[in-house]
Structures are given as structure tokens and as C-alpha cells.
Amino acid sequence: MAIVFQKPKALTDVPYHYCPGCTHGIVHRLVAEAIDALGIEGRTVGIAPVGCSVMAYDYFKCDMIEASHGRAPAVATGVKRSMPDNIVFTYQGDGDLASIGLCETVSTACRGENITIIFINNAIYGMTGGQMAPTSLIGQVTQTSPYGRDAKTQGMPIRICELLATLDAPAYLERVAVNSVAHVRQAKKAILKAFKNQVEGKGFSLVEVVSTCPTNWGLTPDKACQFVEEKMIPFYPLGCYKDRG
Amino acid sequence: MGEKVLMKGNEAIAEAAIRCGCRHYFGYPITPQTEIAAYMAKRMPKIGGTFLQAESEIAAINMVYGCASTGRRAMTSSSSPGISLKAEGMSYLAGADLPALIVNVQRGGPGLGGIQPSQSDYFFMTRGPGHGDFHIIVLAPATVQEMADMTRLAFELGEKYRMPAMLLADGTMGQMMEPVVLPEDTVDPETIPATKPWATTGTQMKRAHNIVNSLYLKPDELEKTNFERFERYAKLEKDECRWEEYLMDDAEVCVISVGITARVAKNAIAAARKEGIKVGMIRPITLYPFPKEPIAKAAAKVKSFLTVELNMGQMNEDVKLAIGCSKPVAMCNRVGGMIPSADEVLAAIRKEAK
Prior knowledge:
The complex is a heterodimer of chains A (245) and B (354). The radius of gyration of chain A is 17 Å and the shape is globular. Chain A contains nine helices and nine strands. Helix content of chain A is 37%, strand content 18%. Chain A has a single domain (24-243), classed as Thiamin diphosphate (ThDP)-binding fold, Pyr/PP domains (Rossmann fold, 3-Layer(aba) Sandwich), CATH 3.40.50.970. A seven-stranded mixed β-sheet of chain A has the order 2-1-3-4-8-7-9, sandwiched between helices. In chain A, strands 5-6 form a two-stranded antiparallel sheet. Chain A has helices at 24-38, 72-82, 94-100, 102-111, 151-154, 160-164, 181-199, 214-217, 221-235, and strands at 44-48, 63-66, 87-93, 116-121, 124-125, 131-132, 172-177, 205-210, 239-243. Chain B is an alpha/beta fold and 354 residues long. Chain B folds into two domains: 4-195, Thiamin diphosphate (ThDP)-binding fold, Pyr/PP domains (Rossmann fold, 3-Layer(aba) Sandwich), CATH 3.40.50; 244-353, Rossmann fold. In chain B, strands 3-2-4-5-7-6-13 form a seven-stranded mixed β-sheet, sandwiched between helices. In chain B, α1 crosses α6 (144-161), α3 (57-69) packs parallel to α4 and α10 packs across α11. In chain B, 53% of the residues are buried. The interface between A and B is large, with 35 and 40 residues.
């Protein structure tokens, strides 16, 4: 019998700790599929962040490093500069990449470091129990915006792809989602491209994945996917923001 | 023996690091240590190394963390306010058991303080600079020669005990020029990662994945890592204390001092000896581990101790702890970038000899 579907080789057998309906599992899989497709597992080093995906180091079979909150791009820079032929990726959430680590994010993009960043934007701090993120939508109720995010006192959400697209150095910036089969297919293509770019030495590539957090959004998995479609995507339009080819 | 050259302390550290196989420097400008970065910026590109001016001290120490994870000899340097920013990174390096070199050429504080020499980061560095239970190796050079020699020692001890190591110099040490014989260039940087089986260099599909990490959500596991780490610290404390004794055979007053003040104190001691005062000095070379034993031994013979420091009495406390407060421990200190003159130290010695 022909095998038509199997677990990517770059994933370990450790069961995920993620909540039901969380899309981290899908994105982990897409990253592992990209690693498999390019045959780079043996020379890949991944950097896990602080946040829900803090234990990503247990799930990927390649060498892994756990970074402090927000510093994954700096850690990745240290790895890449010491082993330029290795493939280095970071996997970061919105609090990690767009708040505490914004300086590292922008500076690493500015340097055009030849690394790959997978940025999970689910508009909330999941690990600490649902606080307002830099990407939380206006009116979004969280533990630290209990009356809904108010632009007057809590500012506007940040659009990372658009921000980084103003820089000269990045090679590739794309925003995707994983709330439907069609979107997962596009996300798969984008993540593969972000890794392939690095293999080919093209420079800084970042894929922003608009994701879900059913637990902290207080929605069922199904309704969370609907929320992505109806609320998130209108504010965070999907598409390619930069591709130097 | 290599050739004797005239060099600034900061530059001696940089050149010595290169000769010890360090090919990766990550830094951020701050006075009075910027010559290290400037030297690396010139040299590294010529020898296939990395000089990277990071966006902040925080980013620099995290680049060191990433580079050290791959088994390379990595370093950063800064001065007091910048070291505050590196504290988080030092805690993570210690928690992940990564060796790395951090240079702190101290200036006066707190806050922005000043840019003149100081030893006021003593507590901060020797107690574990960051959150959690940990130590870093702390070496205190008093000559440009020691700046070079201790660079090598810091890399070697750090790797032996799998922990970050610091050169803790005062601003004077960084800025002064002295003749120095640099270490022989014998370390091949390419061979270093192979000695570190834990390094995240890529599995090459030949082994299970390595994980560099300091997160342990199960308390019993985290406790175990702390206990194991402190067993290493105990061995370090037992085997690696270094100090210099000067005219201690018949001393009745024992001066304890490091860095620039130890040199000033030497002059004061020579003058006091001429007056017939029996005074000597123990100069700690390792600040962590602190050389408690020779100081405790001296306590059995001397009348009193005198610490000479560029802070408000930080090492003074370690001396009291080392001798269990069995003898008086006086202090001669200046702060804010001021340095006591030999006459000031001599006056303090005279007072103790009475």
C-alpha cells in the first residue's frame, strides 16, 4: 500500500501540550514539512521563544535552543554568524516578537540576517493566560483590557509585515493564515519559500501566521477560525509584502 | 616567549581573545571599554571572524548565547550600565551551562554615574549577576599583562566548568598602557566545538537533537539542575582560587585590594615598610571564587585588615565573612571615579598599625 499521508520526519514523537483548536500544531507541521522537503534537518538549528511555543524544542528533531523572551532573533544571529552554512529559524509569538523583542526583530531584519522567522500572530498572550498583545484588536477583551482594547489609552495594534516592508534589507515578508484548508495550503508554500530563501542565501525571510487562541479568546475552535476570517484578516490582510525574488 | 609590546589594557584583551581562538565578538559602544570593540572591528574581518555591533547590550549578550550554543569561543564587553542590561543574558547563559567571556570595564555608578574608574560592580558580579541561583567566574586583573593572561584563563575555566566567565577590570585597567607579552596563537578555533558534545551544531542526522535550555517546569528537575550546578561551583571554589601575597610573612596589617587600588596600595606598603610598619597585602585574583582560605589563615597572624576599594565597602564584607569577623576590617575607599593616592592609603595603614 502506498503511503499517502504521514507525520513529517522533522517532528519528534513528543505529544504537543497545546490546547484543542490551537493552530500551533498546524504551523509546527508546516515548518517540519519544509525542513523535510529541503532535506535540511541535519543542519538546521531552531530557536524557541518564550510564550506558548516555549517547548517547541521538544517537538522538532533538529538541534534546538531556548531563547529568553524576545531575543530569539539575536540568538539566531549568534548561531548563523558562527555557522553560516547551517539553517537557522526562530519561531515566535506576538508578545515575543512584536512587543518585548521588537528591537531585535527590526534590527535583525535591518541587517538582512540570512535566517527564517515564523511569527505566530494570535493577538493575545496565551501562555500567561490571555493578556493584551501588541497585536490585540481594538475592542478585544483580554485579561489586561477587560473593557476591550481602547486606542486612546492602549494604542493601536501593530502590523509587523507592513512595518518591516519599509526596510530595504528583508528578502521576503508574507502574511498567511491557517484557519481554512485553502489558507493552510498558501501558508505551506510561504513557509517553504522562507526556508528555501535561506538555503539559497537570499537573506531575511519572515512569515507571519494569523493564528487562533480558542482558550483565551473564549471561543470554540470552529468559532475561533471564524474570528480569524471575520475580525483578524480584515485588519491583518493576507498576502506578500515583500519578495526580492 | 613572545615579543613584548606596548598596549592598552582593552586592546590587550581583544588581541589575547583572538589568540585564544575567539572569532566572534558581539558588542555595543560604551565608555571606557570601547577600544575592545574598535580593535575587534579592525581585526575580525581580516581573520575570517565576526565583529558585530549589536543594537543593544541585551542583543549582544544574546548573540553570545547563540554563538556559545554552537560551541564557539564567543565574547562581549561592556561597562557597568551596559552590564546591568546583560544581567538577564548572564542568567540564561548560567542556566543553560554555557561558557562565554564577558568583559566589564567598570565605571562609577549607580545610574548613568560617570565614566571614570570604579569597582562598584563587585557585589553585582560576585553574587550572581541576574535572577536565580548562580555564579559566574570573576577574574580581577591588576596589570595589562594580566588582562591578556586572564582572557585565556577565563575561556579555559568557563569551558572546564561550563559557566560564563568575566574579566572584571576597573576603568584604569582598560585605559592604561603597559608592556605586555601576548599569549601564543596556538588555539585553532575550528577544533573547539568538537570538544563540546552538547553544542547545537546540527545533528547531521547522526545523533539525537541537542537542546540548549534553561527551562524546567518540573520543580524536582529544576532543583536537580541547581544542585548539580552548585556541585561544580564547590569544585571551582576548592580548586581555582587565585591570589597574590605580598610581604605577608611578618605582616601585622594585611591590605586586601584588587585592580588599580592594589597597585596604589603596593606603593603605600613600600613607604610604610620604610617607616618600619609590618604591612603586607593579599590581592585576590579570582573574586568568584573568593580566596577565603589565605585570608582566613592571615587572620590568625595579623592584627587587622584594611581593604582599599573603589566602592562603599563591598569587598570589605567578603573579608569579614572570610575571617568570621575575628579581626577588625578597616577600609580606605574613594568612589565616583576618584582613586585614593598612595599617601591616603599610607595614612590608613599607619592608623591600623597603631
